[in-house]
């Protein structure tokens, strides 16, 4: 056939057609020799432990009027150590203060039977007596020690509503009670301006639109704020007072007033004569003259009125010590330091009397004879 056509190109094309069949035969065994890829199973999330769909009620609660008001959710009796099971990790104990007054040991035995079961342990207390202060103090301490949450109710309807709410919010997320977080600058600005009770969102928008910035609105005077549309006298006063209040809270205002009253009483005692108080060896020292803990060794500096010389009988006025930064321990330390200073001053006043007693035998003989004659004649 090659002699008939004598065409080299034809032979080359024929060889090219037969050539791919060779590699295909050798490549097919290679694919069969590769191992199959193993696929691992994906882990699946286990479902959470589900509590009963109905409220479980202990047989001890038969006849309780609370059960008549549990109408929104189903409930059924069950043999449980607590009074009510409101979820997989929530339980409740019911207590009437009237019953607690007659049988005070009942609730302690129930808590002992409950043990460490459940995470949220509610002590649902019915306040059905008038003088309930002492009983509630006792139950509050007991709840803190035994990891209980004390919930008070004043009627059976309110108690039943509490049971329904705890059961209905069994699987609720924390987003329902989480405060709203501002996401944009405009929301944050509106939330800040509406902090005073009398100012709403419309007033906040009018304020920023009128002044252009929060800085200008804060520094504005009442006359300028009154020109804002919708802003009356109450809103102007509320805004002006709020933005000029100190950011720091005066925690010890009451203790400061008490110490100032003590200082006034101490000054009045100093003004009285020593003869009217016989045998009093303790001299009170004003709190204002005691050095503070932050400045050891520094005494109170008297004002100009106390340094002026003259026959004036006005009592010296010392600088008042600001007690805003002091807590109860520091105030107790200041009072103890005042007692120490008073003891030192009392000992210093009593020391000069001792040398005088020692110097009496050192008198001359003539003076002693004159004193003897005076005693005989007198």
TrEMBL record:
GO terms for cellular component: ERCC4-ERCC1 complex; nucleotide-excision repair factor 1 complex. Residues 55-167 form the ERCC1-like central domain. It comes from the Eukaryota. Its main location: nucleus. Residues 1-51, 260-366 are annotated as: Disordered. Residues 23-35, 260-275, 291-309 have a biased composition (Polar residues). GO terms for biological process: double-strand break repair; mitotic recombination; UV-damage excision repair. PANTHER family: DNA EXCISION REPAIR PROTEIN ERCC-1, EXCISION REPAIR CROSS-COMPLEMENTING 1 ERCC1. This is Unplaced genomic scaffold supercont1.3, whole genome shotgun sequence. It comes from Fonsecaea pedrosoi CBS 271.37.
């Amino acid at each position: 056939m090659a002699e008939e056509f004598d065409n080299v190109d034809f032979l080359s094309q024929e060889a090219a057609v037969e050539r791919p069949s060779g590699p295909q035969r050798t490549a097919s065994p290679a694919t069969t020799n590769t191992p199959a890829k193993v696929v691992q199973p994906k882990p699946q999330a286990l479902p959470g432990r589900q509590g009963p769909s109905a409220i479980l009620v202990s047989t001890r609660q038969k006849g309780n009027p609370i059960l008549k008001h549990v109408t929104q959710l189903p409930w059924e009796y069950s043999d449980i150590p607590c009074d009510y099971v409101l979820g997989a990790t929530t339980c409740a104990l019911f207590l009437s203060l009237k019953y607690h007054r007659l049988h005070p040991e009942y609730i302690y035995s129930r808590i002992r039977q409950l043990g460490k079961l459940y995470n949220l342990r509610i002590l649902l207390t019915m306040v059905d007596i008038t003088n309930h202060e002492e009983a509630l103090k006792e139950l509050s301490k007991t709840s803190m020690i035994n990891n209980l949450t004390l919930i008070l109710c004043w009627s059976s309807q309110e108690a039943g509503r509490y049971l329904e709410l705890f059961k209905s919010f069994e699987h609720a997320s924390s987003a329902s009670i989480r405060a709203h977080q501002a996401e944009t600058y405009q929301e944050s600005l509106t939330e800040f301006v509406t902090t005073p009770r009398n100012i709403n969102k419309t007033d906040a928008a009018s304020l920023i639109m009128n002044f252009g910035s929060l800085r200008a609105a804060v520094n504005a005077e009442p006359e300028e704020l009154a020109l804002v549309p919708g802003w009356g006298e109450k809103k102007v006063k509320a805004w002006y007072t709020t933005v000029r209040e100190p950011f720091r809270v005066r925690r010890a205002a009451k203790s400061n007033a008490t110490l100032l009253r003590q200082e006034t009483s101490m000054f009045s005692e100093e003004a009285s004569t020593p003869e009217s108080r016989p045998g009093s060896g303790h001299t009170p020292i004003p709190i204002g003259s005691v050095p503070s803990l932050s400045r050891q060794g520094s005494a109170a500096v008297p004002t100009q009125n106390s340094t002026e010389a003259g026959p004036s009988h006005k009592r010296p006025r010392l600088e008042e010590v600001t007690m805003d930064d002091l807590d109860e321990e520091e105030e107790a330390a200041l009072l103890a330091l005042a007692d120490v200073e008073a003891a030192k001053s009392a000992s210093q006043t009593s020391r000069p009397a001792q040398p005088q007693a020692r110097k009496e035998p050192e008198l001359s003989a003539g003076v002693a004879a004159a004193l003897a004659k005076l005693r005989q004649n007198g």
